[in-house]
Specification:
Blueprint lengths: L15 E8 L13 E2 L29 E8 L2 E7 L7 H8 L9 E3 L5 H4 L2 H8 L5 E4 L7 E3 L7 E3 L4 H6 L3 E4 L4 E3 L4 E3 L16 E5 L2 E4 L9 E5 L3 E6 L6 H12 L4 E7 L11 H11 L3 E5 L4 H10 L12 E3 L1
Parallel strand pairs: 4-5, 5-6, 6-9, 15-16, 16-17
Antiparallel strand pairs: 1-3, 1-18, 2-18, 3-4, 7-8, 7-12, 10-11, 11-14, 12-13, 14-15
Helix pairs in contact: 6-7
C-alpha cells in the first residue's frame, strides 16, 4: 500500500483519453448518444445469414455481468491502448472488441482492477489473441487470493481463483504491486491499494479469503485498484472496476495520491447494489456531488437505486453506460 507520508505521484498530463466500454451488464443500440458519448458503431465481421433476403446484417454486442474498458490515451502524436479488466466469460470481451473494430493485438498493456471472476475470465480469449506478446499486466498481489462468499442463509460459495500458472505462462510481463504503478511514460497511474478513510463504506462484508489454512473475513478486498489519467486543463479521469474499496475512498485517495483536486470524470462500477449498500447511497452521492465531476458514468455493479440517485443529483454530469459507449475526454 502507498504510504501517505511518501511524496505524491502526479501523472504526466495527457491531451485526451477515449474510454470505450467493451463489456458491461447491458447493451442498448437504441440508447441516445449523450453529448459526452460517441454513438455505438460496428466495424467487425458481419457474416451472411439465411434469415434475411436483403440488407446488411448487424453483429450485435454482448452484455454480461462483468466489466471491461479500452483506454486510448493520447499525448502529442503518441496513442497508448490499455485494456482495463476482461469481463465475465472467456470470449465476450474479445468478441466485442472485434465487433467494434478493435484488434486485441493493438493493446499495449493490461490493468486488472481486482481478481474477481467477472473481471478476469475474459483473459482466456484476450491472452490467446495476444500470444506471447510480453506486454505489461498490472495487478495487486492479492489478485490471486482464493475467496468465497458467505451469504445469509446459504452455504458458502467458493468463487474461481485466478491461475498464476496460466497468466504467467501466457507470455505477459506481470507487474505485481500493492503500491502505485505508472505506465505510458507517466501518463497512466494505477493506484495500487486504496486507503480506506470513510467510516461508512463497508467494502464487501460477505466475502472470506483462505489465509494460512483457514477462511477469514476479507471485506477489504485489498486488490481493488483504479486507473487515473490527468487530462490537461480538465482534471482527473478515474476508472474503477467494482469499487470495492468504496467509490468515495477511491476518489479521495486519487486526490491525495496525485495532489490533483479536480475530478473530471468517473467511469466504472461503484458497488452500491443490494441491501448492504442501500443505507449509504445518500452519503455516497453527497460526497460525489461535493466533488462536482463533469462526467459520471456509473456502470456494472452500481445498482439501479444508486444510478437513479446520481442521475437526479448530478443531471448534467450523469450518463448511463452501455456496451460500446465511447467517452471522449
Amino acid at each position: 500500500r502507498h504510504d501517505a507520508s511518501m511524496d505524491r505521484i502526479r501523472p504526466v498530463p495527457v491531451d485526451s483519453v477515449t474510454v470505450t466500454t467493451i463489456m458491461d451488464n447491458g447493451a442498448d443500440l437504441l440508447a441516445p448518444a449523450a453529448a459526452k458519448a460517441r454513438a455505438v458503431t460496428f466495424a467487425g465481421p458481419r457474416p451472411a445469414s439465411p434469415v434475411f433476403d436483403s440488407g446488411e446484417r448487424f453483429e450485435g454486442l454482448v452484455g454480461e455481468h462483468g466489466f471491461s474498458a479500452l483506454l486510448e490515451i493520447r499525448r502529442g502524436d503518441r496513442t497508448m491502448r490499455v485494456l482495463y479488466d476482461a469481463g465475465l466469460t472467456p470470449f465476450g470481451v474479445r468478441d466485442n472488441m472485434r465487433r467494434l473494430g478493435v484488434d486485441p493485438r493493438d493493446v499495449e498493456a493490461l490493468v486488472m482492477s481486482h481478481g474477481h471472476f467477472d473481471h478476469t475470465t475474459g483473459l482466456e480469449g484476450i491472452l490467446a489473441d495476444l500470444g506471447r506478446s510480453g506486454i505489461p499486466m498490472v495487478l495487486h498481489p492479492d489478485f490471486w487470493t482464493r475467496r468465497r462468499l458467505k451469504l445469509e442463509g446459504t452455504e458458502p460459495i467458493e468463487i474461481p481463483t485466478p491461475s498464476r500458472s496460466f497468466v504467467r505462462g501466457s507470455g505477459v510481463q506481470v507487474i505485481e504491486e500493492a503500491a502505485p504503478s505508472l505506465l505510458f511514460d507517466g501518463g497512466l497511474l494505477v493506484t495500487g491499494e486504496v486507503d480506506r478513510t470513510t467510516d461508512y463504506e463497508p467494502g464487501m462484508p460477505n466475502q472470506q479469503a483462505w489465509r494460512e489454512g483457514a477462511w477469514v473475513g476479507d471485506a477489504r478486498t485489498a486488490d481493488d485498484q483504479a486507473a487515473l489519467i490527468d487530462v490537461a486543463g480538465k482534471g482527473l479521469v478515474v476508472i474503477t472496476g467494482c469499487g470495492h474499496a468504496g467509490i468515495v475512498n477511491i476518489l479521495r485517495y486519487a486526490q491525495k495520491l496525485t495532489g490533483i483536486e479536480r475530478i473530471y470524470a468517473v467511469i466504472g462500477g461503484f458497488h452500491l447494489t443490494g441491501k448492504v449498500y442501500a443505507p449509504i447511497i445518500d452519503r455516497v452521492v453527497d460526497a460525489i456531488e461535493a466533488l462536482s465531476p463533469q462526467v459520471i458514468v456509473p456502470a456494472h455493479c452500481t445498482g439501479w437505486s444508486a444510478q437513479v440517485a446520481l442521475a437526479e443529483r448530478l443531471p448534467e454530469a450523469f450518463t448511463p453506460n452501455a456496451v460500446g459507449a465511447s467517452f471522449e475526454l
